[in-house]
Prior knowledge:
The chain is an alpha+beta fold. The protein is built from twelve helices and 18 strands. It has a five-stranded antiparallel β-sheet with strand order 6-5-9-8-7, with helices on both faces. A five-stranded mixed β-sheet has the order 11-13-14-18-17. Helix 2 (26-32) packs antiparallel against helix 4 and helix 9 (314-337) packs antiparallel against helix 10 (347-363). The longest helix is centred in the middle third of the chain and has 41 residues, at 270-310. 36% of the residues are buried.
Amino acid sequence: MHTSTPGSFVDQQHTPHLELIKAEWQIAADLSFCDVVLWYPRNESYQAIAQARPVTAQTTLPQDMTGTVPPASIGPVLDRVFATGQPVTATNDDIAGPPGVSAWPVVWKAQTIAVVTVHQNLVSQRHTSRLEEVYRQSANDLFVMIGNGTWPAQDSKASSTSHGNPRVGDGLVRIDAHGLITYASPNATSAFRKLGIRDAVDGRQLSRLVTNQLDANMPLDEIMPAVLFGRQSARVDIETRNTVLSARSIPLLDSHGEHFAALVLLRDITEIRRRDEQLISKDATIREIHHRVKNNLQTVGSLLRMQSRRMKSDDARQALLQAMSRVDAIALVHETLSQTMEATVDMDDLLNRQFTMAVDIAAGSRSVSTQIQGSFGQLPGHLATPLALVVNELATNAVEHGTGPDGGMVSLVIKRTHAPGQPHPYLKLEVIDEGIVDGVEVTATIGSGLGTQIVRTLVESDLHGSISWERQLPDKHGAAGTRAVVSVPLDH
Length: 492
């Protein structure tokens, strides 16, 4: 069977509507107890660009049809539906198609752009219950709306893939044009009981039933009435003191666009809401911890600064200033992390500030300028502290040993690159000093000092990378500085 990349040939004008169908049609598959396949015309034939299997029944098509051309038995059915814009079902057409297969047009802006086939499992057929009758009728209503171009609604405020969104199996209520309940599934009845509704619900108005259970002091979502009357395709949360239900409505429209009924899906999301609140609370706690750690470190930095002013020894004063710079570097990281809980952090503002701050502290009263080329971009948060300390140490070392009495220039260059033979990207950062200022050679010392030891440990142990120092060749002015090069893999 010929296959190719599904969807790559689809007209871009049609893509948004087809994507909307694929996002919503699991509801139709579950209600119909059938597999559904979306066919798009290609090269005088068709290709399947999506398939959905029902959660409520055994699949009819165990092999995924996506990317395939239709079997010979289905081709004439697709041609007929695409040409006429009318569905082909077992009850309304005499086309010889596979048993249990019906087809519906997908209409967009009054034009048939694709075809949906519905594949029923004939082997598992049995006596239909009231639930199955309502489900199949509701699925048929949705397929008719797909053929009329009215479902899924373009302005829908609900998505079947969103977090906590109700599904068919969670509970279904069918209401008429006046909002009166004509059927409630067993799971929907259970959901009503959790709200405190114990009596039979058939024939009662859904909106009144629900709102009577709400706490009068709690604010009412402005779209709740429209959802519970089935007038708007949207989702709303129904909250009581002990229970939270998610309700999603799907208005059912006839061929004239008139509202004649609606489906309301219900799901108990009490536990989901509780876990979300726990995560929010945990995130807030973590942010507060980062904030307090930052404050404490800034206090330590201030104490070190005060202590350094009392030092009579220049070496002792310089050592305290370096310690203060390292503390400030970690404090800056915690300040950044306190403002976000994302898995990745935009490192540019953090590390550029750190580089500039480290140069200013190390320079003291001298005039040392900075230059930054490239971008760190988004990086995992766990890299923030070691990278900040590495930048701090390299910048401090470059100023102390790579600039003269009158100052100079220290540069930071950032690149993303691939090492030869390695599939994963590397972050490469370079700190460069001028080396010779006013004819005096002041190239950075590459030895076993504390700063060098700190950098090596951070790069090799924390960042799993490598570091090297390179002597630069003299330029036209005779300057020959030092280039510290750090490579950090971005896949660990």
